[in-house]
Amino acid sequence: MKKLFLSIALVLGGLMTVNAQSVQTPNLSDKVGTTPIKEGNWMVGGAIGSLGYSFEGENFNINIMPKAGYFITDGIAIGLGTGVGFQTVKGGDNVWHYNVSPFVRYYFPEGSSETGRFFGQGEVGISGASATANNTNQTSFAFGLGLGYSHFVSRNVALEAQVGYNYSKSNASSAVAQNGLGLAVGFQIFLGN
């Protein structure tokens, strides 16, 4: 009798364990429609990796760019982006730089799906740079234009990729304008409704 009771208990315990350990696949996208980009919502995030190459100076840069925005109407957000980065200069001095840029972002209804949206972004602001060896500092006017895609992995979180064009010109009288292309990868968290 003990063996029968023990065998039944082991079978039931095994079935419960198998049922409790059911494997769920990770959620790689969520059908959110236009819910995250509605008027009154906030977005917080930014690019956690940004790479760029300048045509004039033959230099390479990497940046971290947090940003926050508010949706003034469905699909249009205004906000503020900041950034800090490091630039290597071919045959020259390495440079640390920062920027502060208000931006406007528009999510296109064309080409959208329930799990993703294309967007365009424009920004205008200031940037600063400090060369490490000769200890020089410069402040610049800067603007950028970009196109990107947001892929929603949940109702409130989107992974993003963006390509863009950047321009800056220092306030120094002998300064030369700098422009180039860039690629950024990051995320946004959407707060609100």
How would you describe this structure to a colleague?
The mean pLDDT is 81. A hairpin with an 8-residue loop joins strand 4 (95-107) and strand 5 (116-131). The protein is mostly beta strands and 193 residues long. It has 1 helix and 8 strands.
Task: Please provide a brief summary of the model.
10% of the residues lie in helices and 60% in strands. The protein is mainly beta.
As residue ranges, the low-confidence spans are none
| Helix and strand run | HEEEEEEEE
Q: Work out the helix count.
A: 1
Strand content: over 45%
Name the CATH architecture. Answer: Beta Barrel
Remind me, CATH topology?
Porin
Fraction of residues in H or I helices: under 10%
Number of domains: 1
Structural class: mainly beta
Radius of gyration based on Cα positions: 24 Å
Give the class-level CATH name: Mainly Beta
Overall form: elongated
Main sheet: which strands, in order across? Answer: 1-2-3-4-5-6-7-8
Average pLDDT level: 81
Could you tell me how far the N terminus lies from the C terminus, measured between alpha carbons in angstroms? 61 Å
Protein name: Outer membrane protein beta-barrel domain-containing protein
Signal peptide: 1-20
Keywords: Signal
List keywords for this structure.
mainly beta, 8 strands, 193 residues
Provide the fold topology.
Layout: H1 2-20, E1 42-54, E2 59-73, E3 76-89, E4 95-107, E5 116-131, E6 137-152, E7 157-170, E8 178-191
Antiparallel strand pairs: 1-2, 1-8, 2-3, 3-4, 4-5, 5-6, 6-7, 7-8
